[in-house]
């Protein structure tokens, strides 16, 4: 079973976190706006937060689909390019002056998680290739 593999289990758990976050952002964008340092009543900000929610739901679907179908190489590629998302979020926060320490901590943690998963999945791919 794919979920007995530690890296697959961790990727699926991370995907579920992003699925829940995405659902929260779409369903209740006002409380979620603080993660980006946005005004919680501004219609444009709420629209932006909902768009981020759909992005996170799609990301979760990619991660779950690739993991559950054991597409390790494709998963490694998706994880690698996904690093663009938290990097971009951090750059947007820094350039806008919005958000506080919590916002930076959340996006920084996301960047570290995806970076670690990239290294881990690449290691798993190398071990699999040797066998």
From TrEMBL:
Domain of life: Bacteria
Parts of the chain that traverse the membrane: 48-68, 75-95, 101-120
Keywords: Membrane, Transmembrane, Transmembrane helix
Identification of the protein by name: DUF4267 domain-containing protein
Pfam families reported for this sequence: DUF4267
Source organism: Sphingomonas xinjiangensis
């Amino acid at each position: 079973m794919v979920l007995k593999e530690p890296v697959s289990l961790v990727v699926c758990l991370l995907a579920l976190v992003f699925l829940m976050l995405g659902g929260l952002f779409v369903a209740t964008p006002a409380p979620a706006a603080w993660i980006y340092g946005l005004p919680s009543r501004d219609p444009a900000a709420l629209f932006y937060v909902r768009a981020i929610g759909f992005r996170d739901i799609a990301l979760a679907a990619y991660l779950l689909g690739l993991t559950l179908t054991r597409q390790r190489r494709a998963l490694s590629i998706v994880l690698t390019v996904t690093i663009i998302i938290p990097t971009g979020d951090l750059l947007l926060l820094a350039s806008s002056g919005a958000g506080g320490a919590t916002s930076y901590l959340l996006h920084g943690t996301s960047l570290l998680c995806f970076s670690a998963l990239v290294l881990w999945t690449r290691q798993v791919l190398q071990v699999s290739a040797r066998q």
